[in-house]
């Protein structure tokens, strides 16, 4: 009966049959919260000798047949033309967004894929929440870098941020500044990369080199000349490293 009711709700949201009133919106978000927001199961230890992140099959949530319908209802509610953002923002609020972000650590890739789509749609519809969503995503990254060193949803969150950055309008607002949109920012970004260059982790060094290559493609001559000397000093250290391996030429 519960499943059938949820399917009917999804059909109703798709039908465009009328406005979602404030009272209905409050009830909808209550139902969504009760069904989605939960404690995720303990993560499998990445330190175990037998664990291989690339070889291991993802952990699939046995409750997914139910959760999928709830996520579909949330998605249809958010994108519906009958959902007035000015009304719905009272219930799809900052706390709701934070709870969604917590679910990005789910080991089930199907759940993370839905979350990625839904959060991006929320970002598009609820303009008032945009600065908060960007800051909240950054906080997830900070916790990943400085505290937990593991999080299942980093790739999906980076995809969302990539789409958000691509949509920034010119001229850039102060909080929207990225090298891809303003080449003058290449100098401080390159200097930061050089400042925090990995010393003991060759895998991270390879990632930094890849990022360096992408930023250099966006760098204009005046900015390049300002970082040229420290940049080539760092590259010289890489060439002299015991881990150095020559790259094959691109075809």
Question: Can you describe what's shown?
Answer:
- By secondary structure, this protein is mostly helical.
- The protein folds into 2 domains: 2-167, Leucine-rich Repeat Variant; 183-239, no CATH class.
- It is 61% helix and 0% strand.
- The chain has helices spanning 2-15, 22-36, 64-79, 85-88, 94-103, 109-125, 130-148, 154-166, 186-195, 202-217, 221-239.
- The longest helix is centred in the middle third of the chain and has 19 residues, at 130-148.
- The model has no long low-confidence stretch (mean pLDDT 86).
- Pfam families: B56 (PF01603).
- InterPro entries: ARM-like (IPR011989), ARM-type_fold (IPR016024), PP2A_B56 (IPR002554).
- GO terms for molecular function: protein phosphatase regulator activity.
- This is Serine/threonine protein phosphatase 2A regulatory subunit.
């Amino acid at each position: 009966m519960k499943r059938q009711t949820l399917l009917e709700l999804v059909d109703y949201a798709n039908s465009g049959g009328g406005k979602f009133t404030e009272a209905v919106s409050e009830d909808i978000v209550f139902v969504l919260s009760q069904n989605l927001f939960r404690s995720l199961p303990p993560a499998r230890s990445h330190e175990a000798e037998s664990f291989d992140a690339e070889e291991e099959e993802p952990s699939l949530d046995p409750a997914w047949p139910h959760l999928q319908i709830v996520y579909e209802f949330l998605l249809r509610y958010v994108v519906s033309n009958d959902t007035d953002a000015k009304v719905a923002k009272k219930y799809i609020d900052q706390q709701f967004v934070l709870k969604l972000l917590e679910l990005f650590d789910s080991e089930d890739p199907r759940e993370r894929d839905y979350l990625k789509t839904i959060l991006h749609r929320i970002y598009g519809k609820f303009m008032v929440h945009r600065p908060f969503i960007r800051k909240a995503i950054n906080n997830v990254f900070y916790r990943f870098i400085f505290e937990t060193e593991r999080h299942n949803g980093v790739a999906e969150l980076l995809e969302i941020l990539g789409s958000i950055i691509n949509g920034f309008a010119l001229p850039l607002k102060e909080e929207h500044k990225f090298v891809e949109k303003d080449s003058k920012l290449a100098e401080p970004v390159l200097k930061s990369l050089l400042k925090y260059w990995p010393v003991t982790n060759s895998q991270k060094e390879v990632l930094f080199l890849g990022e360096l290559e992408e930023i250099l493609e966006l760098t204009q001559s005046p900015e390049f000349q300002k970082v040229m000397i420290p940049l080539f000093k760092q590259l010289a250290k890489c060439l002299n490293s015991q881990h150095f391996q020559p790259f094959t030429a691109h075809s």
